[in-house]
Design goal:
The protein has 245 residues and is α+β, with helices and mostly antiparallel strands. It contains seven helices and nine strands.
Length: 245
């Protein structure tokens, strides 16, 4: 099963949302230092996006959507409003690797058909392929490339993360992607493998934890990079002032 991963993708602040955008922006990714050692910078130039937006363009699209909806009453903690839903998109297991880019773009069209302009962008990472050991079989496997779909959780002119990411919406997306995969590539996305009944609770928890760690790494790396940038600017300003005096 290559179902999109919704878990761990809820952003509850503008800062967190833009941290996600920055982490997967091709140009900034090539320049930054990463805690994720699976990122191969020699392949970062192969990363691409569905709509062709860079970091600034994606931030503007997000800001415009925020300005166009009723954001509701300010809240915090567990009840904080969701301002972005990020979904990790995986290609079908049986899809030939040389077809991945083509499939990603078709998957983007499927998502756009369902979510309209609430699909802000999909940032595709082609620089994180790595060998790993399958938690169930113990065999070594090669990971697949993936994309990060940035969805704005708007329903009826209001921010509504709960309704936007309902079970019905998730099921509809899974079905549409599976139908597209069969019709255009002859492979199932939802192949029936790794269903809940056949996987241990420990395996499910480990998989969920990996996704959450990846999402936290995105935020942490952006915070570190921003801090380094600010420190460099402060140093430069201090040196300039010292020379002026």
């Amino acid at each position: 099963m290559a179902a999109p991963q919704w878990k761990g993708g809820k952003c509850k602040s503008i800062q967190q949302a833009k941290a996600f955008f920055r982490h997967n922006d091709r140009d900034r990714r090539a320049e930054a230092h990463h805690a994720n050692y699976h990122i191969d910078k020699s392949k970062t130039h192969l990363n691409f996006t569905y709509r062709g937006l860079d970091y600034k363009g994606l931030c503007k699209a997000f800001d415009d959507k925020m300005a166009s909806v009723d954001i509701g009453r300010e809240s915090s903690g567990q009840n904080a409003r969701v301002v972005l839903q990020s979904v990790i998109l995986y290609p079908p297991a049986a899809l030939p690797r040389e077809k991945e880019r083509e499939w990603f773009m078709d998957a983007g069209r499927v998502m756009e058909a369902q979510f309209g302009d609430n699909l802000l962008e999909i940032q595709f990472d082609m620089d994180e392929e790595h060998e790993y050991r399958d938690a169930e079989t113990g065999e070594k496997r090669m990971s697949r490339n993936h994309g990060h779909a940035r969805l704005f959780p708007e329903k009826d002119g209001k921010l509504n993360g709960k309704a936007f990411s309902s079970r019905a919406a998730i099921t509809a997306l899974n079905h549409a992607l599976d139908v597209m995969s069969v019709q255009q590539y002859g492979v199932h996305m939802m192949d029936g493998s790794k269903k809940k009944g056949g996987v241990s609770v420990e395996t499910l928890k480990a998989a969920s934890l990996r996704v959450e760690v990846e999402q936290l790494e995105q935020v942490a790396e952006t915070v570190i990079t921003d801090a380094m940038d600010r420190a460099s600017k402060i140093t430069a300003d201090a040196n300039r002032d010292a020379h002026a005096e």
